[in-house]
Amino acid sequence: MDTIFLYGIALLLFILSFAADRQKTKKAFSKGLKALEGILPQFIAVVALIAIMLSLLEPQTISRFIGSDSGPLGVILAGLIGSITLIPGFVAFPLAGELLKNGAGTLQIATFVSSLMMVGVITLPVEISYFGKRAAVLRNLLALAFSFAAAFFVAWAAGI
Amino acid sequence: MKKKTPLQRYIPAVVSLAALGALSLIMPEIAPRAGKALVNQLTSIALVVPPIFMLLGLLDVWVPRDTMIRFMGPDSGIRGPVLAFLLGSAAAGPLYGAFPVAGVLMKKGASFHNILIFIGAWSTTKVPMFLFEMQALGKRFALSRLAIDLVGITVIAFAIEKAVPKKEVERIYALAAEEDN
Predict the structure, then answer these.
(1) How far, in Å, CA of B125 to CA of B84, rounded?
(2) pLDDT > 70 in chain B, percent
(3) Is the interface score ipTM higher than 0.90?
(4) Mutate which of A22, A50, A106 to disrupt the B interface (most B C-beta within 10 Å)?
């Protein structure tokens, strides 16, 4: 859905741009293409790593680790699994929803969802190439710590 | 980024792909799943990433540096972070798509603080994802997470800004500036 939207916007803006200035539009196109080629090798590496991760870590494994009765250890595991995995939202949210229905704690699920979205160990190389080691590592560590804090808030707020 | 030969640049990609291939050979039972995951991820990259970069090209060519500085620069006031939040939340695609966008924003003169807000918003307050979350995990869950995320993103941005030395920030900006041209 949002892919179509994205293409729609890109196409529309390119038509407008082309109507306004052909030369600039050509430049925009080649700049975009060049930047894409620049980062492509890293994207391919990330994709391969995601495939390795997804093939080793089945949804059932995740449920076992952070499902019901997993306790405090489950919360920590939820944060770690969320950090190292990179699961698209349309897979992750239904999985999390299913876990929640089957008795997993809100704390574990909220930690998992937050760390999944905000922390990216696999994509760290890409992040470092734009932000430097220091800022990139720091951002991921802070985001992980925040995921735990946010989970307590969500568990509390969802419970009142 | 250091200049590398084209071949060198693709070494990590080749190594990771080889590792995936080796893994599928050692554990044949996971091969179908690995293959499916790879194809899924590649299609999603092939679909989502190109338009992002095309839009980046347009942004680069059409938005003058002065305008970016005025709206998202160090002296943009409250306008900067708000705009950064909206831009990040309106985004589509995985977090690693945000980094190149951040690079162009830096090049155009957006402040480091606003860049960090933008990255935070892209990572976790994207509108389509929020709707999905509401559906799968409930209104209360999604809304309370959104509320705490707004706080968290801001706090994290301030913390990183404080912790990263000015020199390092300048180095990152110089990197972004030489990215193409």
Answers:
(1) 12
(2) 96
(3) no
(4) A50
